Each structure stands twice: as structure tokens, then as C-alpha cells.
Amino acid sequence: DPAPPHQVIRPEPCGVCGSRIRFGKAALKCRQCQLLLHPKCREQCPSPCVPQPRHHAWPREGVLADFAPPRPPLVPTLVVQCVTEVETRGLTETGLYRVPGAEQLVREWKQRLLRAGGALPALSSVADIHVVCGVLKDFLRGLKEPLVTFSLHPAFLRAADIPDDAACDTALRHVVSKLPLANRDTLAFLMLHLLRVSHSPDCKMDVLNLSRVFGPTLVGHASANPTPLAIMEDTPRQCKVREFLRCGLCPGHCQHPCPPSLPAQVVARLLSLPPDFWRGFLGTEQENLVPM
């Protein structure tokens, strides 16, 4: 149900083709779902429309539970949509989650999904799959606290540092079970996704590479504003010597790659847990994770 054409004041991506509608150009906006599109894309507009009342929009920031659905598994729709899109057409892309997407498009699509409560628009219209990866990482990075939470951060670091593999696994399982339900379910969903990415030979993103990328995002530090000393303590000695110069993320620049940071070690250890452990949290309700 599009309203009459109006001029765009702030450039935004078209909800159908994904390309930007520039300042001063004509655009259509649906009265019910607020979908914005080029007039020429009207015929390709999804039908029927799914109304998205404004009061259902997500906050600009918050803890993970603020974005979780009302019934289990408690995984935010934005996370489900991004993961589904990546697994649909991204598992043949080299450097998935390591290669950055265009920053402006990442910001624009993230805001559109937040305004729509994560349900619209369809991410299939985003041409570059690395932009979808960027939206997911930016959403997780923008939470008020990381997925492992500030209160359990020290426990995750201690568990991941246990030398004996069996004891380490037991400790990690125990700490994971203490997470808030939304954090636990979302962590399980992401771990299964990252394992599938690591098993794709085309992506060339093994567990170590993925842990380096997602360590700062999922684990982070023990507080929202860590001191320089806290940041240094989470960083391996070799990285300190090299002054953080793209350490470990650029094969060929360093003769001996740096060891992973402490947050990266936690993610690597979590990815070493058996998939059935993570599936146990999602249970039979996993079909609810398929976005409409």
C-alpha cells in the first residue's frame, strides 16, 4: 500500500533492489510496513505486505535480551536473518567475516533492520554478502555488553585457560549454562553457524581465523570501558611487541604469526565443543529460527 511519491531527504537503500535512493530523488514508502523503494521497483515489491508497527521497532542499543523474541529459542531475528542469508549464498566466499563490507551500507542496513524489528526488508537484495556479515558483526559489537556478559567474562577466561582438554570442556559447559537464556541460545546458534563456515573449504576461514575475528566481538573485555592495562592483559606478548600491527590477520606480514588474544582463545575453545552440545540449547524449537 504505497503512499504517493515523495522526495528523499536522507539517502537510504531501496528495500527491493538494495541500491541507494539518493537525495532529492522520488521514492515510495509503504503505509503499513514502512518499506522504502524506487518507483521502478514497485512491481517487484514483496506481496502481501507484513505490517510492522512503529512501536515494535528495536532500540538503537541494549543488551541481547532486549532484541530476543518472546518464545524459545531466544535468538534475535536480525541474527537469524543474517546467518540464514550467509549460509544460503556465502559459504563459497573467501574470507567470510574477515573481508569487510562497505561501512556505509553496513550502517544503513543495520538501522533498517532495527527499525523494522529485524523482519524487513529481505537481505536477499543486498548484493555483497560481506555487507550482511558486517551487519551481524556490527549488531553484536554494538550491544551494551558482549554475549558472554561482563559478570561471566572472568569465568570464561579461566575455563578456556585450563590446559587439560577434558577439564576445559567441562568448565566451559558449566559457564555457558550460567548465561542468560537469550545469550546462551544466541551463542549456541552462532557457534553452529561458525562451525559450518569453518568446514567450508572455499571460505578459507578455519577455527583459528574465526576466533580471531569473533573474539573481540563475542567475548570482549570485562567492562564497557576497559583500561589500557586491561586491554594489554588480554593481548598476547608477541602482539604487544608488534604494537598490534594487523597481528595474525595478514599471513605473510609476520614470519611467525602471533598467538590469539585471550578472547580469541575463548571462542576457539567454544568452537571445539561438540555440535550436539550447542544443538541441545536450541532443541526441537529450532524450526522457529527460520525467518518468515
From TrEMBL:
SMART domains: RhoGAP (SM00324). GO terms for cellular component: centralspindlin complex; cleavage furrow; midbody; nucleus; spindle midzone. It holds the Pfam family C1_1. The keyword Phosphoprotein does not apply. Keywords: Metal-binding, Zinc. One of its GO terms (biological process) is mitotic cytokinesis. Residues 62-253 form the Rho-GAP domain. Residues 5-49 form the Phorbol-ester/DAG-type domain. It comes from the Eukaryota. GO terms for molecular function: GTPase activator activity; metal ion binding. PANTHER family: RAC GTPASE-ACTIVATING PROTEIN 1. This is RGAP1 protein. It comes from Burhinus bistriatus.
